[in-house]
TrEMBL record:
Gene3D superfamilies tied to this protein: Single-stranded right-handed beta-helix, Pectin lyase-like
Annotated region (Disordered), positions in chain: 408-437
Organism: Rhizobium quercicola
Name listed for the protein in its UniProt record: Uncharacterized protein
Compositionally biased intervals (Polar residues): 415-424
Superkingdom to which the source organism belongs: Bacteria
Amino acid sequence: MGFEGVKMAARRHGSGAVRRIALGFAATICLLLPIKASALQDTGSRSTAVEDGAAFAQIRGRLSKGQSVFLENRGRPYRIDGTLVFARNASLRGATGTVLLSDGDGAAFDVPPGATHVAIENIIFRQNGRSRTLGAVRADNFRLTGGGAVDAGTLVFSNARNGRVERARFENGVAANAIAITNASSGIAIQGNEFEGNAGFGIQIDNGANGNDISNNATQGNGIELVGIRYNAFGNVIAYNRAEGTGDNGISVTGDRNVVLGNHVSGNALNGIAIYGDENTVMGNVAIGNGQNLNPHSPLHNPQDTSIYAGILANGAFGGGGRNNVIVGNIIADDQAQPTQLRCVMVGQGYGRWKAATDYAARRFIYADGEIYQTENAGTSGTVTPSGGGVVTDGRIAWTHVRTLAGNGRPSGNMIANNQTSGCEQAPARAEPSGQP
């Protein structure tokens, strides 16, 4: 099939049926009732700050008592010093375009356990200090709508349920990630947001987080993936997102039993979609013209890179096994004059085996006698093969046990079928050796 045929197929590709299948994997997302807001008038006009101590105390006091605050858009920021702590049912709302500037080094806001049904609406957070945390959400039914954050740190969901972030924009060049979903958080819906210029992931999911719905988000240029799921998260849905121009893969999944459905990934530095985990479903996605590290005319070009990149990669890496994934019904193409997405679907080489007297970089994953280990620090290995759980040593480097992976550490059992391809090799290809020791 030619590239024009591929594009026509993409337009014909229905999403309704596969969407219904995918939602079976996700937790039910609770709808939040709106909270009525009261008005807090502008209390000062002498500077760009809310410099009146009584006014700031009023804001802090209302939120800490579970009440509502409304901020008018004065065309200049409101300035806060310290963390706003929300109580149950509290809400902070602003007119469209309202900016809240945080001077402190701590988080701009905190939603502690028990502070359920907190709402933030149309507030753009900016950070004057050095905090890497925008807000810590540790309660259920949190909702952030509109507004967003500019260089204000990471919004962290930790042991939270049924939260929602929608129609917001995150530009977080000073923080690792824009949004983190961690510590068994579930039912978090991140929907319809924009992520631009974040230093790390747009959204990272890890540490037992499950049943979360990441859908209809977009980036046209992010530091690394728009969405990344680590090896210790499972059962999440990544659907109908658009990842373009990222500095890594468009989307990566190292956890197990996740669904990657109907996403559009194009022009990213490395692979379009990278699946490093087990038993994931990758269906109905469109991957076009990725591997821009290899394009000398792209701002993402890396002249030192000689790798081979794919529209969809299946590989055991970063703690995942790369096994028993289903990769079906995707559209994968490259219409560039000099293609950079050199494989349509590619199966990687898996883990490098531990070797004695070998230099290892920090955070390297290795395979040793049916086990996967990772080191935090760079060093030269000793002479004793890592063995057992917890933190073990080879005589020189300390390795942390990640998981058991029977066999030889290679990806296997992946079902790859019924994908429509053009401009890259039609059949699944095996990747070049990774260069790992």
